[in-house]
Amino acid sequence: MAYPSPYRAGMSSLGYQWICTILAEAGFGVERVFLPDDVPAWRSAKLAPLSMESHTPLGQFPVIAVSVAYELELAGLVELLRLAGVPPLRRDRGPGHPKILIGGPLTFSNPLPCAPFADAMLFGEAEDVVVPAIAGFFDTGSFEHVAGLAGGWVPETGAQAVVVAKADDTLLPARSRLWTPEAELTNMFLLEGERGCHRACTFCVMRRSTNGGMRLVTPDRLMELIPAEAERVGLVGAAISDHPQLVGLLERIVESGRGVGISSLRADRVALKPEIPRLLRLGGYSTLTVASDAASQRLRRQLSKGTTEAHLLACAEAAKEHHYRVLKVYMMLGVPGETDEDLDELVEFTRKLAAIHPVALGIAPFVPKFNTPLDRQPFAGIKVVESRLERLRAGLKGVRAEVRPTSARWAWVEYRLAQGGPLAGEAVMRAVDEGGTFAAWKRALGEAGDEDAGRGAVA
Ligand code: SF4
Description:
The strands form 5 sheets. The chain has a 4-stranded mixed sheet with strand order 3-4-5-6, with no helix packed on it. The protein is built from 16 helices and 15 strands. The chain has helices spanning 7-11, 14-25, 39-44, 73-84, 130-140, 219-225, 246-255, 267-272, 275-282, 297-302, 309-321, 340-356, 382-395, 408-418, 422-433, 438-448, and strands spanning 2-3, 33-34, 63-67, 99-103, 120-122, 152-153, 188-192, 194-195, 215-216, 232-236, 259-262, 287-293, 326-333, 359-365, 401-405. Iron/sulfur cluster (SF4) is lined by residues 197, 199, 201, 204, 206-207, 238-239.
């Protein structure tokens, strides 16, 4: 099981750990391999990535199963395979090379750029299908049978409609198991409190149309799964703060003397259930993190977000009352229809928040994704995003509000991959091989052209 980002990211990925567990319990000799932290150093020393368990070089495994979380991790996949001496493109590999099976969160939106690298792919929730996929390979020496599995795709056979797989509810919840005292991050036991979401934000891949919405796990079931030695519990789920029994669950975890963290918090839940921020703080959570998602109330309504200024102000009050270090607010810039007036509203509103408690704005440029109503909307443009960031920074001078943006350039790369097809995947390899600079990406993606992503392959 390879992870195309460094160890910390892989071990924070509950899905990756959970699939490792399922394969190990089915009797396979599963070993973990991560992208090294310092790829250039490994490349110049000609070091191969080794498995964590037996220190076997990655290229010696018969099957490399990879979990890809988001578009830019495809670069990590190319790096990992290059370091291992495995040709990244399927067409360049021979019978002596490992077979590559790709799955992971990216397959919920646009898996097509993965196609040139994969012998087979599993779209969506892989719990039910990953064991037959691997077992079938050891029976037949091929991955052709994957096309007959739910969510299975064999790219060599060309485009075909594939619906993402939905795991049987009895297999929930995912939980971390590779949890040994020596490893990093291991005092945090990750546990999936629910799966999916019942809401309908127009930009989000995990909206309710995906796999039938939200599936809840009861607090009793969750509590019985927490190992006695776990010092902290990380509750995971796209809409975990919408769990109707979250307050009771947090109480039980905190009362057991454990710390607690949470993967996402909706501002309206914090506003309407003040026990949530109180209990999380008692459990050692120190940055109250919510999402406003767009610069203005008008845009939030347009995105069907349902979060209001009143909710966000209540979050700032809660952060102050419970002595959180900072209120972190995630949002996107460049959503369709955004204007300078929306930015001016953001400045004014952030000033109000910061008058209550220090604020950090985590800003990502909007990238339209497949399988959402905003698919095919344009990317705002690097210059537009950067100039709006400047306007925001200028408006917030002297205010207790930090602006923490992700790069507009890399968001453009993500956009091209999110909306691209297999040629965009091949461009990833050229960009990496030509040094991985932004100029190399621009060149490689320019050569790929504005291909139609072949959406027939994704239902
Ligand atoms: S952004 Fe959050 S609340 Fe909205 S649909 Fe996605 S997971 Fe649900």
